[in-house]
Batch of 2 targets.
Target 1
Amino acid sequence: MARDDGIAEGGAARALRRILLLVLCLFLLAVFAFWRLDNPRVDRIRMSVVDGLQPVIERVGGPLDFLSAMVADFENFVRVYEQNEALRLEIQRLRAWRESALALEQENARLRALNNVRLSPSLGFVTGEVIGDSGGPFLATGLINVGRRDGVMDGAAVMDGAGLAGRVVGLGRRAARILYLTDYSSRIPVLIRPSGRRAILSGDGGPAPRLDFLEDPDEVRPGDRVVTSGDGEVFPPELSIGLVIAGPDGSPRTRLAADLERLEFVRVLRYRPDTSIDQPGGLIHRGGPLDETGPESGPDAAPDGGGAPGPDARPGPEARPEARPAPPPGAATIPFLTPSLTPGFSAPAPGAGAGAAPGTRP
Amino acid sequence: MSGGAAGPGAAFRRAAEVLVLLLGALAALMAQLAPLAPLPDAPMPDLFWCVLSFFALRRPEATPMLLVFALTLTRDALLGGPLGAGALSLLLGTEMLRLRARATPAPRSLLGDWAAAALVYAAAVGLQWLMMALTFAQPPSPMALAPHVATTALAIPLIAGFLRYVLRLGASPRESEA
């Protein structure tokens, strides 16, 4: 028997329908379990779907963007006098800041030259357009129209003009998914300036993420700058994130510099740490007393006296004792010196001459 | 009228309605994806659910389970939410609405359908939250979900009105009775 709405009501049909529903539910449960257990692999599959639909998303998103811009323009028009006044005040304030910034820039350049600082050649970026956001309550994510083919890497930092906005958590060929700093699962190691205290920036769905595990909260005041610490080598250090504010309950939070409500274009940083120091240097002998030939002649000896050679290390001229240049003072005795303390800066290369010019940002 | 006596005209009409569901659901997904408000203080209603609930209540025969399954899984992949959990909860929600459509006699109140769609959506969101919490996946606080559910509940009659009176889909039960 069938009803006039076309839904079969026969016993066999109903049983088949229930079995199908059960099978589909079990399959979806398995997909969910797989997502929880092997998130990167599932995200790759998910991004392949996004890749396939990316042209459609962009085409549909265009008119919607236009409508959204129209609404924003209308709002701006209504508040034009108020905004004009605010902008005049801000220009006055920024002129003073500009003078300070120019002076600091000159001083910075002088100090770099004095210290023979070499700028990291590995910090570049690619600019992409935000073509979508999650639209759901469970995740604060966005889609951008640059992906693997543009050199975007998984985990890369994403910034707008003012500060860090999030990081890449899904990577397709032509698109990538950004996890915003406000998302519930976002955790970023940060430094508070000027006190130098460390904390973890934890998203909680609100516009101002929490500062968890803060060292010496008494040393931190509203208005202090929050920057990336670079711990874990996922993000470059010293990327601007925002300012410390006091939350409604008095707990420290961060007012983000990035305007997540109006993200249109973002920069995805292509950052590779210059050097990863994950092994003791040649001066530290592992296991047993030193042999007569010294640590540098052993199988683990590195050509530069630093860490062990990588898989592609070849014996170069510097490995021969007669060709080895004199190490700079302190280079061999401080094997754990962090090479990159500020964005785009790293410690002088061993053997660099005193007159070497600073590198340039790509 | 029995299903068997429907004829090719009815079959063609049903296929057209299935196609409209497919396109409508995809359009709703694209609209949800538009980068308008990533922050939860300006929540985006779940337009996808608005379209799906309308079809499940008013055109259950044009809402095949396998199509709902494929659409909800695509939704999870595109929106970036908990993959599988969203699809599972919306699939079960659609089936609950279909049960209501079958069990309740034809002249159903619009308010009742609206309330059913909103309550089932709230239950679906609650199920997703529970699945995430049970698997330690850091779900948002329930208070953060409430505005999203509320805006979706408010959007349901708007989308239903658009589908019914602009696209001329799914005559209300009272009209079909007349």
Target 2
Amino acid sequence: MSAEARLSLRRPRPAAGVSLNLTSMIDVTFLLLVYFMTVTQFRTGEEVYRLDLPERAEGRDQPSDPFQLDDEPLRIEVAGMGGADAGVRIRIDGPWPQPTGTAGLHDFLRSRRIGAPGSIGLFAADHPIIVHPTGTTAWQHALEAFDAAARAGYSNITLQPPS
Amino acid sequence: MSGRLRRWGAPGVHANLTPMIDVTFLLIIFFVLVSQIVEVEHVDLRLPTLIEPATAAPEDEQRLVINIVPGPAGRAAEYRMGTRAFSADAAGRAALRSALAEALAGNPVLRVNLRADRETRYEGVYPAIEALTQAARDAAAVRGQPVTPRLNLVVVTESRL
């Protein structure tokens, strides 16, 4: 027997026990982490408007004072001139200056909301606003008009059936 | 002597593949399930894009998703709710109303997310809103108490930056 062989015989036999291989687990954990990060990026873009259905809106608008008069709603007509990238005509029902687009509509509504900075104060934040798109208006334009009112600080906005 | 050496074996690196295979199969099952759910709820649409809108993040509550599949020339081709498809005619709208009423009878405060393509005409989108309104009335008649679903209009938000 050589000296080398004798040395290897004297080496203690490893004790039998439970060993946990963590490498593969860590690999998969990182894969999962990458997956969730990617999915989160995809989903951040989508947000929602909470729209009250007519029944809910009617219930909320019941005046507590029986002698209080209902506010005359402000009606906004939206007429698209083609697809989502085409122009849009906006008309506010009543003796108001007519806006040239959704930005103008937002400025008009904001300038007349009671409590808005620099406002001349005419409509309360819960004044009923009816957005009334024509049937051929692109959904993009209908929502732009809705958004103009929401950004101006109004909370009682409804969509009317198409004309 | 040489026999003993052979029985012990030479020291080496051994990869324990069992947990890796277990987790890989779990991952496959997870991805298959998730991809099916996402596909069913989210039809590929070009949603309306608004710059810094006054929207809110969607809540993680129980909700239904109605997708309005676009057709030619801005028309609505069909309405999809989960795996169910409803045609964009009077019969399809009536079936959509019934399906929504059934869901609302089970959950009167259900959230309904409405996803429509930005090019779809309003006359194709509003019937889905109307169907939900009528379904709420139907469900209220069945339950004998008010049913107040919430409608969420889904958009894509963009920052000015």
